[in-house]
Design goal:
2 copies of one chain form a homodimer. The first copy, chain A, has 486 residues and is an alpha/beta fold. In chain A, β6, α7 and β7 form a beta-alpha-beta unit. The longest helix of chain A has 24 residues. Chains A and B meet through α1, α6, α7, α8 and α9 of A and α1, α6, α7, α8 and α9 of B. Chains A, B: It comes from Anaeromicropila populeti.
Chain lengths: 486, 486
């Protein structure tokens, strides 16, 4: 959707640092990892999304004449550096986990291997895009889980944080499981279903509700969903809807799909009462759609109370991920090349789990062969090799006494970080959004139910290989002994 | 910033309703109001923002050949309606409260008077834009209030909900009071200061912290702010920064602006300790900037504990308005023209305060002449006239016993809803973002301190004129008696 050049969509300090490297003739290749530390909304997993836009962004990276003129006007950048920017394009490698994959904390979702000036420039936009779309895809998968397979429609455009948030957010919501979106631009750009019927203003613009319903039913004879809460749901809206359905039945013009939409009031009570009224009139296949401040918790609660709702329109709480509106992805330096070798780097912190994992890494997903479920993920250095015909010892990198040995034949390993750019050339083709959605459903099926639970889910283990674990401790020891000697 | 055509940035039901009106030869002029019911984040007010993009959006409204082809492919729209869309442009009137104005619940922030098909199409995009930017401008004004006049910098791009949320959100943050943004694209597009220095990766890419600091200071001799928490703030970062400042002082090259940035740990403790160390070394004018999960509450708490911080970088919590990530603006039908007269319309609800205000309205802001502070806002019908030389009786529209009579000379009235489009032509020129920011500061000065309080603020009265109040009750009585007789 985004057609403009996003090259300046970066933090100012990326440019001041770039000039610093440029002036010091430093353009060593580096490894940066995008990862996050906590699943959003208390989830047991996240769904990564946004890669397609990252690819588009990197492909189109260049500073226009206007961009350079603007930067010159700030009187902080020298002409030689501006000349360098004018010829800038991305020459590095990018690896990423495909969109729609279930992912866990500390895993590199994207890995950039590039000269430091290039790697630094693209930090902010990559984080912005991956953080946003992963957040909404994750939220959508939770809402759809609560709806237990019933249709969830994304209706949040009017409350989204700007046009992109509405459009790219709706894309992510479909990846996470929504059947479609009310956002026509998203539907067109990404080839997903556009959904919706009419608003209260439609009803109010007619002399009465019955006429408004009748007119709508005539216009849209194959899918007639009537909004019943403009005046009084049970005393006016549902009776009028039933009257129109009867007229259609009497005329032999029953729509293929028809029903009502509830948009206010107590949805459990109103849906059960409405269901009864529809059934009593013989409309047992009439659908009942609900919308109104829904999220995964309210849907779950309504389901557990036996609400007679069979499709769900979810707006604000999904498109903003209201209870957790930011995905905490970060972009951390993991290694710097010196004389052809990557020297691993680490970022310290008072909190052990905030210390980064050093080196040029990849991720293996370990499946149980008999269930197909995820046993654990294993972060390892790229040069390590694993042999599935041998036992595999895995252990928790913080509580190291938590160990398991996997027997040959009982587990399978699959590398999930895939090449996307090599030497600046894109080597990856994004699937369509509906293909990503289908893949995401397969991915969700590899999680144990306990991990999908909405509240206090079972965590999936993300372990470090023995080699990576030892390397990390070795560097920590060295850094700490340097600090002691200061 | 947004260069693409946003005409399809609309809910699908706007188009199905439009076709419904088209097929029924109904294109009566209508009045729609954009208003909200509750201030975000428990605030006593909101700052409206986004109008400039709304103007741009309406000016550029048209369906491209590609848009029409897409809509045709859905097999729900007839050729005659698609022909109408192909020739569509906006012909109506728009009134709005200027960006940067303080506003209160129930006030029309934007009023659209247009043929119903046009008014319906633009609902979603107007809400999306106004909701988003008003949300962030309001949040920014709260964060800046907490910082008590000290500089607040917008640093949230990497955690924003997509590129627009980062860029238009940063624009709104500056309107609300931020001194600038890290987002270079926003800085360029909207002419606001671009801010930032370096990241942890800069420090980590050098053999040691001291070299990283020295190199940075050489590069940026007029503004040298050093990030001191990469390894150990008090044992490594601050001592190394002081060493570099001493070297600059000894060389007679003291930067005009210099200091340190804290980005982790306990900011109250670290800032006081760092201040002492800087002061002891004679650097009493060194600035201390803090960033790290800040919001208005944490800044207020740090200030009350005497934290020695003089500028604030605020990211995630501002750019997403984390505690309240959606602004609840709605778009409600207020009147329909019949035979040249607007017939007022009302939307019922179980909740009295959710019932809409009918008719073609405007808003007068009433100031106390001796203080210049806002006394109340008055929503009235456009045809009403008021005479400041006479006493003015105002009363709360729900608790009607709350009455005040304002004496002539003691109050002033100013209409705040201004014309923006007339007959489809834009008649309003947006100020620059920095002009809007300055205007917003003036606006905030018209609020009582009690209304600016971060928690449980004093509410500002938004009253209805007697004429509007009576009209509303008359319509409610009619609707209720119709329901009784059904």
């Amino acid at each position: 959707m985004i057609k403009e050049n996003l090259t300046l969509l970066t933090d100012f300090y990326e440019l001041t640092m770039m000039q610093g490297y440029y002036k010091n003739n430093r353009n060593d290749r580096v490894v940066f990892d995008v990862f996050y530390r906590t699943n959003p909304s208390g989830s047991g997993y996240a769904i990564c999304a946004g890669l397609d836009l990252v690819i588009q962004y990197i492909k189109e990276l260049h500073f226009t004449y206007e961009d350079i003129s603007y930067l010159r006007s700030l009187n902080i950048f020298d002409e030689d550096f501006l000349d360098y920017l004018a010829g800038f394009h991305f020459t590095g490698d990018v690896y990423a986990i495909p969109e729609g994959t279930v992912v866990f904390p500390m895993e590199p979702l994207v890995k950039v291997i590039a000269p430091i000036m290039e790697a630094q420039l693209i930090e902010t936009a990559i984080l912005n895009i991956i953080n946003h779309q992963s957040l909404i895809a994750t939220k959508a998968s939770r809402v759809c889980y609560a709806a237990r397979g019933e249709a969830v429609m994304e209706f949040g455009l009017r409350r989204a944080q700007g046009p992109d948030a509405g459009t790219l957010g709706a894309r992510a919501a479909v990846i996470g499981g929504c059947v479609g979106t009310s956002n026509v631009l998203c539907a067109k750009e990404f080839g997903v279903p556009a959904l919706g019927t009419h608003a209260h203003s439609w009803i109010m613009s007619f002399e009465n509700e019955l006429t408004a319903f009748r007119t709508y039913a005539e216009l849209y004879p194959s899918n007639t969903t009537l909004l019943v809460d403009t005046y009084d749901t049970l005393r006016s809206g549902v009776p009028h809807a039933i009257q129109v359905f009867k007229e259609l039945r009497d005329a032999g013009k029953m729509p293929a799909k028809y029903g009502i939409r509830l948009d206010s009031g107590d949805l459990a009570y109103l849906s059960k009462k409405s269901r009864q009224m529809l059934d009593d009139a013989g409309f047992i296949d009439a659908g009942i759609c609900a919308s109104s401040d829904l999220d995964e918790y309210l849907i779950d609660s309504l389901k557990s109370q036996g609400a007679a709702i069979d499709s769900w329109g979810v707006g604000t709480n999904l498109i903003t991920s209201k209870d957790c509106p930011a995905f905490g992805g970060v972009y951390k330096l993991a290694a710097i090349e010196q004389n052809g070798t990557f020297i691993p780097k680490i970022k310290l912190s008072e909190n052990q789990w905030k210390i980064t994992n050093p080196g040029n890494k990849t991720i293996y997903r370990i499946y149980e062969t008999d269930t197909g479920k995820i046993k654990a993920d294993l972060i390892a250095l790229v040069e390590e090799t694993f042999d599935e015909s041998k036992p595999l010892l895995i252990f928790d990198p913080i509580s190291t006494w938590k160990k398991t040995t996997l027997k040959p034949g009982k587990y399978k390993m699959k590398e999930i970080l895939l090449p996307v750019f090599r030497n600046g050339t894109c080597v990856y083709e994004s699937p369509t959004v509906l293909e990503i959605k289908a893949y995401c459903q397969e991915q969700l099926a590899t999680l144990w139910d306990e991990t999908r639970r909405l509240i206090n889910p079972q965590e999936v283990y993300v372990d470090l290989s023995k080699v990576l674990f030892d390397l990390k401790n070795e560097i920590l020891d060295t850094v700490n002994s340097q600090k002691e000697s200061d």
